[in-house]
Design brief:
Distance between the termini: 43 Å
Shape: globular
Helix content: 40-55%
CATH topology: Nucleotidyltransferase, domain 5
Structural class: alpha+beta
Number of helices: 4
CATH architecture: 2-Layer Sandwich
Strand order of the largest sheet: 3-2-1-4
Number of domains: 1
Order of helices and strands: HEEEHHEH
Length: 124
């Protein structure tokens, strides 16, 4: 019998490739990719043509950590990450992005980052 984690990782990699095949970022319209761990949520603006990260924000970054309260849920913290990445993008003159949900379903923290970015002024 195959190792359960090996099968799970292969399925996740296929989902990631399927999503990424339809999405390309550029300098004018970068890709906003979101990932998460058990404790933190991460967001990056990526220019796929140069293979470079334009901006990033995370719940464990000092700019976001100062805004978080102790009793805040992970979903609320993820929304703050979305607002922070939108603020950084607006400073760099970026208003349009392409959203990359990575291997995750559009639900919970992933959805909260997207809503935070939208409320921060980014257009998808």
């Amino acid at each position: 019998m195959a190792d359960k984690n090996l099968v799970k990782n292969k399925k996740a990699e296929r989902r990631r490739r399927r999503v990424r095949a339809k999405i390309k970022g550029s300098a004018a319209i970068p890709r906003l990719t979101v990932s998460k761990s058990a404790q933190n949520t991460f967001a990056q603006l990526i220019d796929d043509q140069k293979c470079a990260t334009i901006a990033s924000a995370a719940t464990n970054a000092s700019a976001v950590k100062s805004k978080l309260k102790k009793d805040l849920s992970k979903v609320d913290a993820a929304k703050i990450v979305g607002e922070e990445i939108a603020k950084i993008a607006r400073k760099k003159g970026i208003e349009k992005i392409v959203f990359d949900r990575n291997k995750y379903i559009y639900h919970g923290r992933i959805k909260a980052v997207a809503e935070g970015a939208r409320s921060g002024g980014l257009k998808f």
